[in-house]
Amino acid sequence: MTTDKTPGDPESKRPALLIGITGPCGAGKTTLANGLQQAGYRARAIVQEHSYVKDMWQRLTKPDLLIFLQASCKAGALRRKLNWTEAEWQEQQHRLEHARQHADLLVDTDGLDAGQVLSAVLTFLQQGKK
Length: 130
Fold this sequence. Notes:
Blueprint lengths: L17 E5 L6 H10 L3 E4 L10 H5 L4 E6 L2 H8 L5 H17 L2 E4 L5 H13 L4
Parallel strand pairs: 1-2, 1-3, 3-4
């Protein structure tokens, strides 16, 4: 674990920024968390979409910054090889509404590959939006 707010900044003594990542199944939460960790960030995928507790993302992680990855029902089902209904996807959207409202960054992952999502998030982080 680093102690940098900005990876690679050896002069910083602040605790590392904790990035939470949430979104529906198949949006790319785990893939993005892994990519951010490889880039030197503290990141955690938050599986909020399965909980009826609206602020579970805060209870599980207490992130300094929250990223919401959005994926359509079709994209999520293809990525995860799920056979879910539109109603099941809508329920996930409902469960995620609180996190979506509190997100610092929202990325629609439909039509993007993992590298493009990571690039968009790294650009946001490097611009110091938070």
